[in-house]
Known about the structure:
two-stranded antiparallel ribbon; 106 residues; 2 strands; elongated; 55% helix
Amino acid sequence: MIEETTFTKDWINQISNEYKKSKKRADPALIEKATKALHLLESLTLTDLQFIFKGGTALLLLLDEMHRFSIDIDIIIEKIKTKKTWMLYWNRLLPIVVYFKGMRSM
């Protein structure tokens, strides 16, 4: 679970400074976006939408050392065959989309 403190300016700047000490690039805006992307993924797991998480962000979670910040999530879902099923998924996902659209950058 991603803690609420990870969305604070202080936490983001702390992480940015830790990466800068190790001479890695750590733009606070990228850290914030990467955190929000992972929070979106966490939110999707709370729905009953079956999906496969793939791509760069998925690889970041498997690697011991982070070489870059990924700010998107790539998922695959099965083809939705009926409008009714699509509407059920959409109604579950809409609050998540609205929530993330309302989050402001630093």
